[in-house]
Amino acid sequence: MEKATKILDKQGLDRVLTRISHEILEKNKGSENLVLMGMKTRGEFLANRIFEKIKQIENIKLPLGVLDVTLYRDDFRTSLKQPQVSVSNITFDINEKAVILIDDVLYTGRTVRSALNALMDFGRPESIQLFILVDRGHRELPIRADYVGKNIPTSQSQEIKLKMEEVDGEDALYLVEINN
């Protein structure tokens, strides 16, 4: 049995993404040399939305890619479930670019570590900056985000679930209590 508390609704999510888009542009002094990289699955949809926000703000279309880190995960061979492997979609050069890596939740840091390994197989970026919608704490690796939508400290019996219209039929962020 799960108990869910809504943290963000559609408008709240939109406000966070608008703020972060401005922060990305401010930190990088504009959009020159930037590329956006969404991590499968929900990071991909967040990246699409940030792409649209930056397009509205700067009147420019940034290169936008999708990164699947499944085969780079350190738990790939130990997982009991059969992983769903999809394809990364990066059709541009990331060498000497400022890559904005985008994902939904930062927890232990292991998925981000996997993403860094995967990105290095595509080239040598000038920098990699991390946008996370929610930082929930409990890090196992020394990884921190450059851009954070919300800091939501959680207990081990809680999860953060992002629902997005593209895959879930609604835009919302939930804090979920897991009863074991």
Mind sketching the topology for me?
Layout: E1 2-8, H1 10-27, E2 34-39, H2 42-58, E3 64-67, E4 98-106, H3 110-120, E5 127-135, E6 147-151, E7 158-163, H4 165-168, E8 172-178
Parallel strand pairs: 2-3, 2-4, 4-5, 5-6
Antiparallel strand pairs: 1-8, 7-8
Helix pairs in contact: 1-2
Please describe what this structure looks like:
With 180 residues, the protein is of the alpha/beta class. The protein has 4 helices and 8 strands; from the N terminus they run βαβαββαβββαβ. The strands form 2 sheets. A 5-stranded parallel β-sheet has the order 3-2-4-5-6. Strands 1-8-7 form a 3-stranded antiparallel β-sheet. The protein starts with a strand and ends with a strand.
Briefly, what is this?
With 180 residues, this protein is an alpha/beta fold.
Strand order of the largest sheet: 3-2-4-5-6
Helix content: 25-40%
What's the SSE pattern?
EHEHEEHEEEHE
- For the record, give the distance between the C-alpha atoms at the N and C termini, rounded to a whole number: 8 Å
Largest sheet properties: 5 strands, parallel
The low-confidence runs, each spanning 5 or more residues with pLDDT under 50, are none
Counting helices, strands and paired strands, the structural category is alpha/beta
Task: From the alpha carbons, calculate the radius of gyration and give it in angstroms.
Answer: 16 Å
Q: How many helical stretches?
A: 4
Give the rounded overall mean pLDDT: 92
* Shape descriptor: globular
Assess the beta-strand content as a share of residues: 25-35%
Number of E strands: 8
